[in-house]
Amino acid sequence: MLGAMDISASGLVAQRIRMETVAVNIANINTAGTLEEGPFRRRSVEFKAGLDRLDRAGLGVHVSKINQEDDFRIVNMPDHPNADAHGNVKLPAINQITEMVNGMEAGRAYEANLAAMDMTKDMFANALRIIA
Amino acid sequence: MIFENTISRGSIAVMEKMTAFTEERHKVLANNIANIDVVGYKMQDIAADKFANVLYSAAQTRKTRGTSASLQLKHNTNFSYNTRGHLQVKRIEMKNENILFHDNNNRFIEKEFVKMSKNSGKHRMVTEMLRQQYGLLQAAISGRV
User: Fold this and answer.
1) Distance separating alpha carbons of residues A3 and B41, to the nearest angstrom
2) Max CA separation in chain A (angstroms)
3) Does the predicted model carry a pTM greater than 0.95?
4) Do B113 and A9 touch (CB under 8 A)?
5) Which of B98, B130, B136 to mutate to test binding with chain A, by most A CBs within 10 Å of its CB?
6) How many domains does chain B have?
7) Distance separating alpha carbons of residues B22 and A84, to the nearest angstrom
8) What is the ipTM of this complex?
9) Residue range A108-129: average pLDDT?
10) In sequence order, which ranges of chain B are alpha helices (DSSP H)?
11) Which of A6, B20, B21, B125 is deepest in the core (most CB within 10 A)?
């Protein structure tokens, strides 16, 4: 039964990392960067089953990779320092609404994992009442 | 002699050692949580499963030596008793797995909380059992039920 708490904790960690990438994406929605490096690249997380990379049992979840996507959108801003000959600037392809929805999903998933952990703790406390 | 026999033999000795161990572990985990934002801090823990094994084998050897023998933990690198009889545990640094922060360490506060919760659950269970044992002793001494 106490293993269930580890599984819930791994869910909490994974959702929190996902929330962090959402926050980074929203914060950098207009980061054009430099001409050499290019604009900020949208981050996304990949989840995999298992408590960590070496876990074969597949119980729990962990973040296996944080992707940085190479997509961008082009906006015409002739006065921008990064503007090319046509006055176009490359900005990150981050949609605020998409990020907000991802963030809400991550928040709800975090709450769900917390609720599962509360139930596990209650079960353990009830089992303790047998001897107390 | 009689009083020492009742509290330092039997299951009470085992449970007292377990209580001391869970309290030590609580200190280490609380230290982890307090230092969670410190750059370069490596998470520490103590070998909880090894302690369970050591305690179990000590109880088994005590059985072979008779019921009046005292509980003695075998010497090992992780656990020892200092001259005042307090439990000393070796703090082990956690291995890093998965995605790391910039200082090449990882920190998951939720996992530390869960470890703490499990540890305090064990502590509560052992304390409850101790309470019951002392209650039995009291009933035996007072002669009433």
Assistant:
1) 27
2) 79
3) no
4) yes
5) B98
6) 1
7) 64
8) 0.71
9) 91
10) 2-8, 10-34, 48-64, 109-142
11) B21
